[in-house]
Amino acid sequence: MIKHNKHLDNVPVYKPGKPIEEVQREYNLDEVIKLASNENPYGCSLFVKKAVENEAVHLNRYPDGGAYYLRKKLASFLSVGEDEIIFGNGSNEILDMIARVFLNPDSEALMFQGSFIVYKIVSMLQGAKVKEVSLENNFQRDLNRLLDAITENTSVVFIDNPCNPTGVANFKDEFDEFIQKLPDHVLLVLDEAYFEYAKQHNVPDGINYVRPINPKIPKKNVIITRTFSKAYGLAGLRIGYGVANKDIISKLEKVRQPFNTNRLAQVAALEALKDQAFVKFSVDMNEKQKEYLYEELEKLGICYIPSYANFIMFKSPREDLYERLLEKGISIRPAFGFDGYLRVSVGTPEENEKFVKTLKEIL
Ligand code: PMP
Q1: Position 1 in a domain
Q2: What is the reported pTM?
């Protein structure tokens, strides 16, 4: 018998939102609306498409593993050093690298109950003990509870802000205080996958904890992870990044695969960054459409959790709603970790109207 890594045995398998093609095949449907993976329903910047086309002639050559041009642009966009950034094949890969570098069977990973499931997966694969801190009423999260749960074995604290799948966020004041009290032996992973959607709502800009503007907040061990998969609309290309001090980044670089971000992803991310008008359009539309969905859910008497991201978690009014929607060509998702709840991504006006119409038909 071959022997495998014994830490694998209890690791949950990540279940992504069903791809459109899969739903079409399974349910014999021509048209499917996917509101299952918090993607940007408006596509991506038009400049990206042109850059990807131009880059396609170089596909026979390996990419630049260091992502020279993208790094320069992002460093200037974020006002951080070029050596304070690491790129990943999606921010998921950065989470994986963090676990590989900072967790082992003697250490603990701390997170809130129901956080993004990948934290648990990557921590368990390292054999680390996963400790989950319970939530308050209405899925709120008390950062002091995390502080109380830190022990001398705690190596990494993961926080998704906002949280996937609840959409709940913690605010700048709470984080400022939390960071000040964070012990020096702990690395805080602040996952800001939905930052562009949330930033207008007084959530912290986590990068400020890497290059503190506020001198009262001492430098702590913090890494911010962000992605081009959401507001920038590049989920299919797989590119995300981490920002931390250069000591943390240089450790992570040791476990990064040589060509982890591909040529198309690098040029696409560079162009996407330049087109902030597209990001603003996407974020503004998301806010308006979220309001529309709130109103319609309220009219149907469905209980939802106000969200700071581009998705909404709601209590399913019937057990088979997820399947019934799928049969009718609407793909949403069970909210992982919250039995009886579903999560719908905010789509275009047409997609959302179709979702609401189908919801009414089923109910
Ligand atoms: N963090 C959170 C909270 C997410 O919801 C996601 C995507 N579902 C990710 C990280 C990873 O995104 P990506 O790998 O596409 O950058």
Answers
A1: no
A2: 0.97
